[in-house]
Specification:
The protein contains 6 helices and 10 strands. The protein is of the alpha+beta class and 283 residues long. The structure holds zinc ion.
Amino acid sequence: MPELPEVESVRAGLARHVAGRSFSDVKVFHPRAARRHLAGPEDFAAALTDRQVGEVRRRGKYLWLTVGEDALLAHLGMSGQLLVGDPQAPFGPHLRARFEFSDGGHDLRFVDQRTFGHLSFSPGGAELPGLIAHIAPDPLESSFDDELFAARLRKRKTGIKRALLDQSLISGVGNIYADESLWRAQLHWARGTDTLRRSDVIRLMEQIRAVFADAIRAGGTSFDSLYVQVNGESGYFDRSLAVYGREGQPCPRCGTPVIREKFMNRSSFSCPKCQRKPREGRW
Ligand SMILES: [Zn+2]
């Protein structure tokens, strides 16, 4: 599932290839792709036709293209891809929407095998689309306040990983980068947020930003080949993962085999030596 670095890679690709160009034709091929646009796919298409793309912005795992004061908002879900390429290329079976441009150049396609992704038109949403106004800033935004986050976190009685996945506290961190940043900060995922010191949280934030920067440089993590950049190429950060998906392999720091534990119907990967399990963990 794409997390912040993957969505940022897509955002940067769209900024390079789509910004400044005008939509000449918009077609939605599967109603689920526009299900969050309550007025329906035809209204969605009409609202964007003949509009010029300004900037491409992101918060957490959402990205949006500004069109004047309005926005085209996208969430990739589990398997969504935004691809820029040859407009003559044949349509694949999972093409959900297609945007052609007035210059007749490369088109933009939304391809989504599992259809959890969605697109919507957000009137007045250029600054921040209404659909995501309730989502907390992500750690790469200048409005993210580490001190405020540390204070809010320490007041909660939950596990640190569960808190990192709570999009009302912090956005953009999912299973992969939670495990990687907790390993870098040497914190166990079940550590109670109320037992963290301020300095633990500040250290964790540094590591979250560091792992995001490393992953963005690598074009993101393409685990199941469903995530690709706008040119269809995979990211290669999976080669640099320390613990995620590496059960039984040596911890890059101390050599102890990485363990996998059940967590919220998913898994948590950690080093049992570098990340000491708390006596009373919180799940
Ligand atoms: Zn270790």
